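Lecture notes, part 5. Sequence design as translation. It can be helpful to think of inverse folding as translation between two languages: the language of shapes and the language of residues. The source text, in structure tokens, appears below.
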């Protein structure tokens, strides 16, 4: 599993996201974590930055709304019960990671991205 933290320079919440991500991963599947500073709106669109910080799980932002445009603004996450914070909660990060993990495991096991197995009836 690959995890990427996208941020703008000086983002006050990137360290909080990194701390919560480490806690969410404790005892879980191995993961590669990279941090990337995004410097302009075109790069934000290409990278999938939907506000800073953004976490990508295997290249996808599990917290973005469908069709949400790229943004270099500060991002707040709804952590339930009216709590808006600068990073997803540890629990929400665990849920997002768990949602991706089975698909990744299936792809490695079958050598596909989840489509029908070769020779299977259609």
């Amino acid at each position: 599993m690959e995890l990427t933290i996208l941020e703008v320079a000086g983002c006050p919440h990137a360290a909080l996201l990194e701390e919560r991500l480490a806690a969410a991963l404790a005892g879980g599947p191995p993961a590669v974590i990279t941090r990337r500073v995004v410097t302009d709106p075109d790069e934000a669109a290409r990278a999938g930055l939907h506000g800073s910080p953004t976490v990508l799980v295997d290249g996808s932002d599990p917290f973005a709304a469908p069709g949400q445009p790229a943004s270099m603004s500060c991002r707040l996450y709804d952590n339930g019960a009216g709590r808006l914070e600068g990073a997803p909660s540890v629990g929400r990060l665990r849920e997002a990671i768990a949602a991706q993990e089975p698909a990744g495991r299936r792809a490695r096991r079958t050598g596909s991205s989840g489509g029908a197995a070769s020779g299977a009836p259609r």
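The translated text above is only one of many valid answers, since several sequences can fold into similar shapes. The chain has three helices and seven strands.
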